[in-house]
Amino acid sequence: MLKRVAIKGAMALAVSAALISGVQAADTIKIGSFLAVTGPASFLGDPELKTLQMYVDKINAEGGLLGKQVELVHYDTAGNAQKARTFVKRLIESDNVDLIVGGSTSGATLAVIPLVESAKVPFISLAGAVAIVDPVKKWVFKTPHTDRMAAEKIFEDMKSRGFKKVALISGTGGFGRSGRAQATQVIGKYGLELVADETYGPKDTDMTAQLTKIKSTAGVDAILNFGFGQGPAIVTKNYKQLGIDLPLYQSHGVASKKFIELAGNASEGVRLPAAALLLAEQLPDSSAQKPVVVKYKTEYEQKYNSEVSTFGGHAYDGLMLAVNAIKKAGSTDKEKVRAAIESTKNYVGTGGVVNMSAEDHLGLDLSAFKILEIRNGDWTLVK
Predict the structure, then answer these.
(1) What are the alphabetically sorted keywords of the record (predicted)?
(2) For residues 339 and 357, what is the distance between their CA atoms, to the nearest angstrom?
(3) Strands ordered across the beta sheet of 370-375
(4) Under CATH, which number does the domain 23-145+291-368 receive?
(5) Which of 130, 8, 103, 100 has its CA nearest to residue 48?
(6) Best label site of 19, 73, 158, 223, fewest CB within 10 Å?
(7) Same fold, 23-145+291-368 and 148-274
(8) Residue 102 C-beta-side C-alpha neighbours within 13 Å
(9) What are the extents of the domains in the chain?
(10) Residue 12: what pLDDT?
(11) Residue 138 pLDDT greater than 90, yes or no
């Protein structure tokens, strides 16, 4: 008899523990995420996930959010858009997340937009394509500068240097295609002429044929490459090997020290638009961003012993926008949180000062971008 009671008691304790665990799990604020932590876009997803983990832990250590602990529910897409759809469906239907911060690549983000719009779940994307927020989707926001903004910032700099004719080379992946489309649309606005237009595939390992065509095109003043991953580094190396004596611009898709490591000495003199984060200590003390970016940079580099990138910064901004919105809403009611994100004003982040509205789910203008030049293997601000 005693043995049977003991067994029943143990079973009762186990059931109670399970029930308590279930209550605790239901009593967390769930932030879902899907990132390319492995695969060809891991240089995006790895710092993004590390950033989210670090600051979720920090928020919980400081007492949580609305008196609850924050739970990060994450899946690795390896950069695959179909996996992204599968995982986002799981985040919404099985994990019952309150909000989603993720989407390392434009392709993965665009693939899941119909899901989050249908389910009415607030979604803050970490990808670059302007199509993510233009036209505006009710439940979708983003933190990175758009490819259109990158093209405009680059063309603005080219114009200031007296250039007239531009050669474009771009990747055929989602980011490169979108960047090419935006560049061709806005180039005329700056009085520039596109005189060459070449592309390369995501698995191409040599772009000398395309660059040779550009080199032989009469009157080219500067070259712009729109791409991310290893492609831009290969373009830069081939450009150097061919002895092309023209200014080379890259997009914000290479705003990471990984690009400089991959391209090596060939990257010297390359210009690109990027967030102030890469120049944290070089910013004037009068900059509202300086304390924010220096703090994030210091905390990230101390914890992970690796250099900060703008991609991790996008995740920081995405999480902070989400946290601020939940605080403002005073709950995790999805419509209230969505409305709070949309009404964000004067949020000072790593990407710039954010002012959103019903017509603008990014909230950044061209002043959020800086033009950088690579000198002696490091970033320098172009005055």
Answers:
(1) Amino-acid transport, Signal, Transport
(2) 9
(3) 193-200, 165-171, 222-226, 248-250, 271-274, 370-375, 378-381
(4) 3.40.50.2300
(5) 103
(6) 19
(7) yes
(8) 34
(9) 23-145+291-368, 148-274
(10) 39
(11) yes
Report DSSP state, residue 188. G
pLDDT reading at 55 higher than 80:
yes
Architecture of domain 148-274: 3-Layer(aba) Sandwich (3.40)
Query: According to the model, what pLDDT value does residue 26 have?
Result: 56
Q: Is 63 exposed, middle or buried (CB count within 10 Å of its CB: 0-12, 13-18, 19+)?
A: exposed
How high is the pLDDT of residue 173? 87
Q: What is the mean pLDDT of residues 102-128?
A: 96
Whether a cis peptide bond, with omega within 30° of 0, leads into 202 is: no
Whether the predicted pLDDT of 8 surpasses 70: no
Q: Which two tokens stand for residue 340?
A: 């709070």
Asked whether the predicted pLDDT for residue 9 surpasses 50, the reply is: no
For the stretch 17-44, pLDDT in tens is: 333 334 444 589 999 999 999 998 899 9
Looking at this protein, which amino acid is placed at residue 14? A
Return the amino acid letter for 68.
Answer: K
Map tokens 């999480």 to a residue.
319
Query: Nearest-5° angle of CA 57, CA 58, CA 63?
Result: 95
DSSP string, 99-148: EEEE-SSHHHHHHHHHHHHHHT--EEE----GGGTSS--TTEEE-SPPHH
Residue ranges of alpha helices (H) inside the chain are 2-26, 42-61, 81-93, 106-119, 147-160, 174-186, 208-215, 231-241, 257-263, 290-304, 310-329, 334-342
Is the pLDDT score of 226 beyond 60? yes
Exposed/middle/buried for residue 102 (C-beta within 10 Å: 0-12, 13-18, 19+): buried
Instruction: Return the structure tokens found at 70.
Output: 């924050």
Helix (H) or strand (E) holding 347: strand 347-348
Q: What is the pLDDT of residues 260-279, one digit of tens each?
A: 999 999 999 999 999 999 99
User: 49: Cβ–Cβ under 8 A, 6 or more apart, which residues?
Assistant: 33, 35, 37, 74, 315
DSSP of 39-93: STTHHHHHHHHHHHHHHHHHHHHTT-BTTB-EEEEEEE-TT-HHHHHHHHHHHHH
Local structure of residue 203 (DSSP, 8 states): T
Contacts with 302 (C-beta within 8 Å, 6 or more apart), sequence order: none
